[in-house]
Structure formats: C-alpha cells, structure tokens
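Our preliminary data section would be incomplete without showing what the modeling component actually yields. Below, a chain of 297 amino acids is followed by its predicted structure, encoded as tokens that our downstream tools consume directly.
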Amino acid sequence: MLPFAYYLLKVICCSAVLYGYYKLFLRDKIFHQYNRFYLLVSVVISLVMPLIKINIFHNQNEAAAGIKLLSIVTSSNEYMEEIILTAHKNNLSSAQYFWIFYVLICLVSAAVFIKFLLRIQAIINGHKYNVIGNTLIVSCDEKGTPFSFLNYIFWNNKIDLNSTTGNQIFKHEMAHVQQKHSYDKLFINGVLIFFWCNPIFWLIKKELAMIHEFMADKIAVEDNDTEAFAAMILKATYPQYQLPLTNSFFYSPIKRRLIMLTKNKNLKAGYIGRVLVLPLALLLFAAFTLKTKTFNS
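Predicted structure:
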C-alpha cells in the first residue's frame, strides 16, 4: 500500500507542475488544439513518468556539479524507500483500512460511469433517430439537450433545427462529434475512477471541457455574426441537469466562451509559451526518472 501511496504522491506532484505551467502560460490562449493535446499528455506523463527509473552510476569522489544536484533532487526516493521498508516491518493495519476505503471509492466511481453509459443507451433505444453522414441525430425531450456523445447528437424537439439559432447549435454539437471530444471525456473520467484522489486531474477535466467549448464555438460562428452568437448564448436558459460525459451546448460558465470568441491572436506570445514546455519536460524527466547510484573506484 505504501509504495502505491508514494506513487500517487509523485503523480500529484508531477501533474501539479504541468497544470501550473498551463495556468501560467497556456490558459485562455487561442491555440485550443495544442492546449487540448497538452492537457491530455499531461495526464499520461503524470501517470507514466513516476514509474520509470533510470539509474546513473557515478564515482562519489569525482561527481560533477550536475550529478550532485541530481543526487539532492532524487535523495527523497531513498528516504521514502526506508520509510516503506520500516512500515512493512511494523505491518500497519491502518494502511489496510485506507486501501479498502480507496478501492470502495473506485468501485463507486466505476458504478457511476457504467450508470451513465446505460442511461445514454436507454435514451437511444427509447427514441427515433436520423442518420446524417456518420452522425446519428436522436430526437428527444430529455433534460440537458441538446448534447452530443461519441457520434450521437441528442436534439431537443423544442428547438427548430432549420432556424438560425438551431443551425448554429447543430454546427456546435457537430463540431464536438467530428473532433471526437467525447473520447477525451471518456479518457479523463476513466483515469479519475482510479485516481479520484488527485485534485489536479479534476481541474484538468474541467479545463478540457472548456477547451472543447472554445473549439466548437469557433466552428459554430465561422463567418457568421459573432455578436449574434454571443447574444444567443446569453439569452439561453441554462438547465441545472447535465450528464457528466456529454458535450452540452448549454455549458456554463459562459464568460470565458464569450471572451474567446472575440479574442485576437498573439502568435509570438503563443509560440514562446509552447516552446518553454520543452525545458519543463526535461526537468520533470530528470526529477522523476533519473536516480543516482554511487560507487567507489
């Protein structure tokens, strides 16, 4: 249990650094596709990097300055290993209770996930649908509609699809389908089943949902009147009910969506922010994977 707890701690630390960088340099920038990719990769890196261990052997008397610095950074690994060995000897029962609690939360999260999938399947089976290309349009009066999931668009019968407003909303939901945003949601929610205790992953989930809306809004507007589209969002009635893995048009908060619709491009600032991620990745790789080992010549 303690080795896993230490692994969780490193996952949280790694994801916190990556998300902190996102908040400082990438958040609310106009390169949405890059931000989407960055957040998804941040989750993968946070999960995988703490599992990698690369030993660097060096002479204790002839260690370079870089090796000495790395030794200080990675010395916490040896300290934690000693704590883990001591805890195993003491056979702490509290760790077993924590493990049971952790697994129970995972099972509850998995049950909620499965319940959502069954709910979506029930809506599909209970209503008629039309096929447009590879997309299935399900006509219904369910709460939270219109929304999209995978290659389905669940359309509210009260919205006229042929109206200007209906057409823009449809383009918005079609963008979610074509850009496969549901797969992002399935991935991050699947990760949260097992890593529910990491608050950074919950923040990443929320930020991914906003980026999806930015991308879909941009496509829905295209050459149309941006102000009219913004006014439509403001006048819309936002329902309280929303399925957790769907992409709903009526998504709040709306302030950031409206700002992004009229935001000007700053290519220079965006380029610098994206390039600076390279030294950050190198630093994290050294801190979490490299482990110094000394030998006497």
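The longest strand covers residues 54-59. The CA atoms of residues 33 and 288 lie 27 Å apart. Preliminary results of this kind motivate Aim 1 of the renewal.
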